[in-house]
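User: Hi! I have a protein structure encoded as tokens and I'd like to know what sequence might fold into it. I'm fairly new to this, so please keep things simple.
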């Protein structure tokens, strides 16, 4: 027999000794004093001695039974598998096991050090619970892995408990946050599918440490409702009092996502910004973290050995939770390898191993192919005052006059009338210097090129007064701006450029490398007229790159299709990039083309724009990552890449991928389309402990406000067997209440009996007093 309240039960049973002690004390012998009539009393005592002893024993037994029955009622006994009121019904046990990123946390400095991981404890507790089920009595078990998105491994519940135990043993931590709301919703759907024939008791157990990365208490949990049978019991392991100190690599952004490393490249140096986040009790202390950066190139046989190692140190001040550093590295060998490559940032082992690396695919090119869309010039060579915008673009993109294989940027001349998909297909970028000459039907082709990962740069034509081309351009490209049909003019010397960089909306900053020099380079530039634009301030992403002193944008950038997106629809994130220059490179518009700023400005727009337009092909674990165009399959390139092969649907993986790693995108012919990287989600690695009261309130929402019963965090689930608390969880807690009431009624009955016996055995006789005379 076990008790729901064993301490009260044992303390009450110990009180049974009180009436026995009182009885013994009352029987202490006293020194007899003989007197005359004593012999008559002794003779009467001898005749009634046996009856008096029996009366005392009955009274003592009644008093002990009263105390014992009250103690048992307060302890609420559980009579195990058999029960006393018709036996227990079948149990349906649903186990929700936290195998998210935070479940890999250990107390030491890394895997194999310190305490077992949180997941190993949860798995041991889950197996102990399953071991107490009896399939012969109709017991069943279901299993949900909570590594996001939650995965129903055994639903509906199965009577094959040994198979469930094997699946529990095979659970491994994911690199995504814990998805308890998704797990609760999966159980809710399974309960709704049950019928009245599936009676018995339903027990839902959540096994987690409930660290900040495991419990998003801002997300409401679905209510499980009342399943058929004897109701629902919701249990959970006790929240951890504290978590380990953990540092996560939260981002890696190269300042040049496309590296041009042709024969004439002066250097393969590149700067990479690495972002780190720190959580757990160690945030209050000063510390230092070393960041190491390497790169690998992809070939048909796999990845090359790591190369180009460089490192930097992030120094943490007390209370600092986020830090970053810029690592300058020389991609040694990049000039000999072209195609898809990956940058890898790593840090030392700490509380969670899965978030100590971050991968970022990049492209290494011999050159960039840029199409210059403008009418061909015929006749004599023009003077500098007669240069068209296309002429200035040629000079800015190839200031040294190199051509052919020696050029880092290969220019391809395209007539606007012949702008079609085949000509655009082989380009990295298209500069449209004469948009008024582009046929209206061609803008759809330009948009398709951009959405395929291309860069489109548009400049207004030189000699046009009414810019009607802008209507088709904005409509078909799906851009968030409005453009006036007539340019705005600034007389008397023109308008100066703003010395300050405007705030960049979004993640891409094409002019990041010019931030230090831009104020000095922009000082002599004057703008005499520019297209009147509006709507850019709040809608542009990445936004206004260069502005005039009065706030008028000079260079704008946005992905295509932003106007058609539904607000908040993150799944419809468009690719590609469209850059609009509001002033033509002509002397009646601006003198920018005659200033030193024009070359670095155009070069950075093209070089950085190509990289941002293509996208990074990376995502966070727990999502279905985007894939390059025409990809049909993702094939794992690293040992940790799970699954090893994933089919694609549309432009992304056909299913969520829960583990960090690197995959090769291949087309229907087996040709490589690029690299796709998944990284551990830093949100799932947060190690701050949450208040138990907040967790209890959050969980109770799933039980309709009912109290959640905790499983002790230090429960012994080793080889010695399951703890009594876990065995008690599988009993019907109503049994204790059903037994408690009869026990209390029995105690009351014996109390009444004791009063009656005490009155009867006192042998006191009361006679009415005689009336006075």
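Assistant: Happy to help. Inverse folding works backwards from shape to sequence: for each of the 773 positions I chose a residue that suits the local structure. Here it is:
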């Amino acid at each position: 027999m076990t008790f729901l309240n064993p301490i009260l039960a044992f303390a009450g049973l110990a009180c049974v000794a009180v009436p026995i002690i009182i009885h013994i004390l009352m029987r202490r012998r006293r020194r007899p004093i003989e007197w005359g009539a004593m012999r008559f009393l002794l003779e009467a005592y001898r005749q009634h001695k046996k009856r008096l002893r029996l009366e005392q024993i009955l009274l003592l037994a009644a008093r002990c039974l009263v105390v014992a029955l009250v103690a048992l009622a307060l302890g609420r006994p559980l009579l195990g598998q058999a029960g006393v009121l018709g036996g227990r019904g079948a149990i349906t046990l649903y186990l929700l096991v936290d195998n998210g990123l935070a479940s890999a946390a250990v107390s030491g400095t890394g895997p194999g050090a310190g305490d077992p991981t949180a997941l190993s404890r949860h798995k041991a507790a889950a197996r102990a619970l399953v071991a107490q089920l009896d399939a012969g009595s109709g017991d069943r078990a279901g299993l949900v892995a909570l590594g996001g998105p939650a995965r129903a491994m055994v639903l509906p519940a199965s009577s094959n408990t040994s198979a469930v135990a094997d699946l529990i043993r095979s659970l491994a931590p994911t690199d995504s946050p814990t998805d308890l709301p998704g797990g609760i919703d999966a159980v809710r759907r399974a309960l709704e599918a049950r019928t009245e024939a599936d009676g018995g008791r339903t027990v839902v157990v959540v096994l987690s440490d409930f660290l900040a990365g495991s419990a998003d208490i801002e997300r409401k949990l679905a209510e499980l409702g009342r399943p058929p049978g004897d109701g629902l019991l919701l249990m959970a392991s006790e929240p951890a009092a504290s978590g380990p100190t953990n540092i996560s690599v939260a981002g890696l952004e190269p300042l040049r996502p496309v590296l041009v490393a042709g024969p004439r490249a002066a250097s393969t140096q590149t700067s990479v910004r690495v972002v780190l986040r720190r959580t757990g009790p160690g945030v209050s202390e000063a510390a230092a973290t070393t960041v190491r950066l390497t790169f690998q190139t992809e070939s048909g046989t796999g990845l090359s050995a790591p190369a180009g190692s460089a490192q930097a140190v992030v120094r943490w001040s007390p209370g600092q939770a986020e830090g970053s550093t810029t690592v300058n590295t020389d991609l040694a060998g990049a000039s000999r390898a072209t195609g898809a490559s990956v940058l890898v940032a790593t840090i030392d082992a700490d509380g969670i191993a899965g978030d100590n690396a971050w991968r970022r695919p990049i492209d290494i090119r011999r050159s960039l192919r840029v199409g210059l869309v403008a009418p061909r010039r015929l006749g004599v060579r023009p003077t500098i005052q007669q240069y068209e915008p296309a002429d200035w673009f040629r000079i800015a993109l190839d200031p040294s006059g190199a051509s052919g294989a020696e050029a880092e940027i290969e220019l391809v001349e395209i007539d606007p009338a012949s702008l079609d998909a085949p000509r655009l297909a082989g380009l990295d970028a298209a500069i449209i210097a004469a948009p008024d000459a582009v046929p209206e039907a061609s803008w759809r082709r330009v948009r398709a090129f951009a959405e395929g990962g291309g860069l489109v740069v548009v400049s207004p034509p030189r000699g046009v007064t009414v810019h009607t081309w802008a209507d088709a351009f904005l409509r078909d490209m799906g851009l968030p701006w409005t453009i006036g049909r007539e340019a705005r003019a600034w007389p008397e010397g023109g308008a100066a450029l703003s010395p300050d960089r405007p705030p960049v909306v979004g993640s891409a900053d094409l002019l990041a490398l010019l931030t230090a020099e831009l104020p000095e380079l922009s000082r002599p530039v004057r703008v005499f007229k520019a297209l009147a634009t509006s709507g850019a301030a709040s809608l542009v992403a990445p936004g206004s790159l260069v502005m005039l002193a009065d706030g008028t944008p000079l260079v704008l950038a946005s992905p295509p299709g932003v106007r058609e997106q539904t607000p908040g629809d993150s799944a419809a994130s468009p690719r590609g990039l469209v850059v609009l220059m509001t002033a033509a490179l002509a002397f009646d518009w601006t003198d920018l083309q005659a200033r030193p700023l024009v070359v670095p400005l155009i070069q950075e727009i093209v070089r950085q724009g190509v990289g941002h337009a293509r996208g990074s092909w990376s995502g966070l674990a727990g999502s279905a990552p985007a894939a390059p165009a025409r990809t049909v399959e993702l094939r794992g390139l690293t040992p940790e890449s799970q699954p090893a092969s994933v089919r694609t649907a549309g432009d992304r993986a056909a299913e969520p991928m829960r583990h960090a790693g690197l995959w090769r995108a291949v087309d229907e012919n087996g040709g490589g389309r690029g690299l796709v990287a998944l990284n551990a989600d830093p949100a799932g690695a947060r190690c701050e402990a949450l208040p138990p009261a907040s967790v209890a309130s959050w969980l109770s929402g799933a039980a309709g406000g009912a109290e959640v019963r905790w499983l002790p965090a230090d429960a012994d689930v080793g080889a010695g067997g399951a703890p009594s608390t876990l065995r008690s969880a599988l009993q019907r807690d109503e049994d204790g209440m059903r037994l408690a009431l009869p026990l209390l009624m029995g105690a009351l009955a014996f109390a009444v009996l004791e009063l009656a016996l005490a009155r009867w055995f006192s042998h006191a006789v009361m006679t009415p007093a005689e009336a006075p005379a």
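A useful reference point when you look it over: Residues 38-75 form the longest helix (38 residues). Feel free to ask if any position seems puzzling.
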